[in-house]
Design goal:
Elements lengths: L4 H27 L5 H10 L3 E3 L22 H15 L4 E5 L8 H11 L2 E6 L23 H21 L3 E5 L3 E2 L7 H17 L6 E5 L9 E2 L4 H11 L3 E6 L9 H10 L3 E6 L16 H17 L7 E4 L8 H20 L3 H9 L3 H12 L4 H10 L6 H7 L2 H9 L9
Parallel strand pairs: 1-2, 2-3, 3-4, 4-6, 6-8, 8-9, 9-10
Antiparallel strand pairs: 5-7
Helix pairs in contact: 1-13, 2-13, 3-4, 5-6, 8-9, 9-10, 11-12
Bound molecules: alpha-D-allopyranose (AFD) and manganese (II) ion (2 copies).
Length: about 425
């Protein structure tokens, strides 16, 4: 199923009056504050977010999974779904594959389909948290960190294979999320586990093409519940530095213990040029993988405030790779992803409104209230008309969720795919 430019045009016709009022009010307000609305719209338009292949179907928890009708069950159908998101928003121009779940059968056809949909392949993700059929050895007690050399060798080879698959698709990065850890005290020697992991990552890194990046993701717990080898940003940062210039830390918003100051982690990593990428989601308690911005929108804005500051002041830090990493257990995955894209761009646009010079001055004056007023003035601005204008300018929809429902996308997908597709997922 594809959404045509004519359909989008018609949708926008129905929304343009209400949008016009809101946009005129906001742009007049911003312009008289000396903010260039045109420049902000261009920055929003340029902001692209990768869609995880595993989030296009219903997710699930260890207690069960409730299939969502019409969900994709082939890589081609996953591309089709991302094509729908990108047609509506023009901000979802890439897909992140998970190997071996998404190994293409026909690379030429898949690349052709992606090209037609205006999509590129973002980071490829390796999987050493599950045993695959026919595997010679198990990851039950670890992979890259395992005390068992055969498991380490197999896990390293898998990551090297993931890089070779990514190269064929034009991807330029690999994300290593290492689930290794322990469930009980005494189960592993912490130092040996780190040393083995470091050695394994070095072998993978040696295979990295010169124009690639390796993102090392961290997570405090789950699936292991006593310890995780790459447990926090400091461990990831240490390993990325040990590997070399092309290795970076990847921050997944759900991978922090409650109340962690994530924006401070972001600022610290950018200062050292080692913030490689982001997995956007939201959480109340753990790695809940809920819709980004749905629980802690102000925290998301504060993170973007540091990102916008870092992108302007830390030239040695590459522009981070933006990706959603969420699991949709009860919502239509595509509607959830449309909401996620809106929340990310909203936080980004609000952060662009922060008067950084005035903030710096208030900090110098130790004017705490003044600092807070500057941040909250930006955060309290309803920037949705700017997002809509950026989408429309790029050929997308003023109101993507409204269009998605008006065009009956989900029921068309059910007609085409039937009711009980079961997609792979985490
Ligand atoms: C799980 C992990 C981690 C990883 C993702 C894809 O918690 O976030 O990035 O799977 O492998 O969500
Ligand atoms: Mn993640
Ligand atoms: Mn996660």
């Amino acid at each position: 199923m594809r959404i045509t430019a004519e359909q989008i045009q018609k949708e926008n016709e129905s929304q343009k009056e209400i949008h016009g009022f809101a946009f005129d009010y906001l742009s007049n307000t911003l312009e008289c504050q000396g903010i260039s609305v045109a420049a902000i719209i261009e920055q929003i338009k340029a902001f692209q977010v990768a869609i995880p292949s595993w989030a296009l179907g219903a997710g699930g928890t260890r207690f069960g999974r409730f299939s969502f009708y019409g969900e994709p069950s082939t890589l081609s159908q996953k591309l089709e779904d991302v094509g729908v998101l990108h047609a509506l928003t023009k901000s979802a121009g890439s897909i992140s594959l998970h190997i071996p779940w998404d190994v293409p059968e026909d690379y030429t056809a898949i690349k052709e389909q992606a090209k037609t949909l205006g999509l590129v392949f973002d980071a490829v993700n390796s999987n050493t948290f599950q045993d695959q059929k026919g595997a010679k050895t198990s990851y039950k007690f670890g992979s890259l960190s395992s005390i068992d050399e055969a498991s380490r060798v197999q896990a390293i080879a898998h990551n090297q294979e993931v890089i070779s698959i990514g190269k064929k698709l034009g991807s330029k990065s690999i994300t290593v999320w290492l689930a290794d850890g322990a469930n009980f005290p005494g189960q592993v020697n912490f130092q040996t586990a780190i040393q083995q992991t470091e050695k394994s990552l070095h072998q993978i890194y040696a295979d990295l093409p010169k124009d690639w990046k390796m993102f090392i993701e961290y997570k405090p717990f789950e699936p292991n519940f006593y310890s995780t080898v790459i447990q926090d940003w400091g461990t990831s940062f240490m390993l990325a530095n040990s590997c070399g210039k092309k290795a970076y830390t990847l921050v997944d918003l759900g991978h922090h213990l409650p109340n962690t100051n994530i924006e401070q982690i972001v600022a610290t990593l950018m200062l050292r040029g080692k913030l490689g990428g982001f997995h956007f989601n939201d959480s109340k308690y753990g790695d809940d993988d809920l819709t980004v911005g749905s629980i802690k929108p102000y925290a998301l804005f504060l993170i973007f405030n540091e990102l916008v500051y870092g992108m302007a002041n830390n030239p040695e830090n590459p522009s981070p790779a933006w990706m959603i990493d969420a699991s949709h257990n009860i919502k239509d995955p595509l509607e959830d992803l449309l909401q996620s894209l809106e929340a990310i761009l909203e936080a980004y646009a609000k952060a662009l409104l922060v008067d950084q010079l005035a903030l710096r001055e208030s900090q110098k004056q130790q004017d705490v209230v003044g600092c807070q007023e500057i941040l909250q003035a930006a955060y309290r601005t309803d920037v949705r008309p700017l997002l809509a204008a950026a989408r429309a300018k790029a050929g997308g929809c003023l109101n993507p969720i409204h269009a998605y429902r008006n065009l009956a996308v989900r029921s068309k997908l059910i007609q085409e795919r039937g009711k009980h597709n079961v997609a792979s997922g985490l």
